[in-house]
Amino acid sequence: MKKWLSLLFIAFLTVAMLAACAPDREEEASGGDSGSDDTSSESSEDGMPEKPEKLVVWEDKEKGVGLEPAIASFEEEHGIEVEFKELDMATKMGEQLRLDGPAGTGPDVLTLPHDQIGQFAIEGLLSPIEVDGTVTDLYTEASIQAQTYDGNLYGLPKSTETPVFIYNKEHMTEVPENFDELFEFTKEFNNGDQYGFLALWDNFYFGNSIMAGYGGYVFGEEGGALNPQDLGLSNEGAVEGAQYIQKWYEEVFPSGIIGESGGSAKDGLFQEGNVASMMDGPWAYQALNEAGIDYGVAPLPKLPNGEYPQTFVGVKGWHLSSASENKEWATELIKWITNEENAKIRYEETNEIPPVKTLIEDPIIADNEKARAVAVQSERAVPMPNIPEMGEVWEPMAQALQVVATGKSEPEDALNEAQSTIEQQIESNHGGN
């Protein structure tokens, strides 16, 4: 009996030793310590989740030509198909996103003007993106600020635009260094049919640049986010800026460029060769080219206080749909199509200025007068506020600047009344938030 028990014990030990020496099947399947590569088809790269078969991008109408090269290189690098669709960004993009996003038939990535970010974020249609500082440092501070809402980054910038100084080389050979010089030039040049300088400063989009240059502001900031309870539209700087605006209307601007028809009147005068200079944006270039005007473009001159006008800058960006099931890879695509190389390619195809710091000094922009003017002025600009409360600002400020321009009200009174109206509308329509 004892012999039998001894044999049984020896057999048990032998099996246990063999089991201990055998390779662990789960460890072997996962590569274990053997140093072999992960061969699972479900794996991805650099800790990323499984690759999707396809990503979908919505681009602005007639701008896909600037996107195609970036898509091709992304597909080659990552092996993910990218499909893009062109929609009219101004009128159809948002409407379509509201329908297709929740239905699961929308895009992973889409382009939007930055002033729409806040509303879409509130509606839950966009998700913030997560990128590190090495990515955001590629772009100008204003363009990243424009992509930020409520302290979160909602996209990366693809292009920027802002008003600049445009002059007719037949009438003006050198750009004035400051507005004092421009004012004196304009007084001498004006003769009833021709004008030295025109601007739509009764339009808040343009007029704010003068007020902001003196220290006015729309919304203050708190904790990295715009604070709609902090309005600077009637502070001392804003009033001083409005007084300067009034001086131009009283002494040199013609009465015909005030109000809704002011823009078309200004454009017509310049295109007919009757204006030496004006404040306008890159959207004016095509009409001037067609009119055969030999024109130059520069950043805006300094104000009498030594500061530059702080124009509103508009930034178009690439954004992440909250309905995307592939947010990590969609973010990777956003980073790819906005990097320095692809931003440069896109500029060559579309002429839209990328707010990439290194490209501002690249000969492709630095040697292009029109592009460089927009790039430099964009660095001096402030992003148009992207919170919904901005909708309450436009009309009261337009009314205030028009009564200032026509001399029907003193600047301080007009701005105080406008700010009071805006505060009431924000409280009524946005709950004071």
Automatic annotation (TrEMBL):
Keywords: Signal, Transport
Superkingdom in the source lineage: Bacteria
Start and end residues of each stretch annotated as Disordered: 24-53, 407-433
Gene3D superfamilies: Periplasmic binding protein-like II
GO molecular function, one term: maltose binding
GO biological process annotation, one example: maltose transport
InterPro entries: SBP
One Pfam match: SBP_bac_8
Extent of the signal sequence: 1-22
Family the UniProt entry places it in: Belongs to the bacterial solute-binding protein 1 family.
Protein name per UniProt: Extracellular solute-binding protein
Species of provenance: Halobacillus trueperi
